Amino acid sequence: MKISQKLEYACRALAQLAKHHDGRTITRLEDLAQREDISANFLVQILNDLRRGGLIESRRGKSGGYLLLHQPDSITLRQIVESVDPSLLQCSVAPVGESGDFVRRAWLHVSEELISTLDKITLESMCRGKEEAMFYI
């Protein structure tokens, strides 16, 4: 699966904010950019998308920066995707031709499964490395 750089950086920035989350601690843009090796100019665009998506808050001024608006265990990967790269969740297959409807239904099923999985993964689980049970054959 090809994930956009923007989405990857959004997840990494949110992971940094989650690591320092106590509801009060503000993280400066420069610190986020340095810790995750992301261009500050690109990161500010991503953080603006996350702010508009209701996931983070920004504070202006000398002691300004960013912090999570919610607990890391209540932010899902789906919310992150919807804030930064919503086209990933859209099915673009048109029901054209004799087989178009069948093909579209198959991709809609894949899309629904993806959304369901994204709803189950929280920011906390990404940060803490908590994984679902692994089954081996």
UniProtKB/TrEMBL annotation:
Name of the protein in its database record: Rrf2 family transcriptional regulator
Source organism (scientific name): Luteolibacter pohnpeiensis
GO cellular component: cytosol
Pfam family, one: Rrf2
GO molecular function: DNA-binding transcription factor activity
InterPro entries: TR_Rrf2-type_CS, Tscrpt_reg_Rrf2, WH-like_DNA-bd_sf, WH_DNA-bd_sf
Highest taxon of the lineage: Bacteria
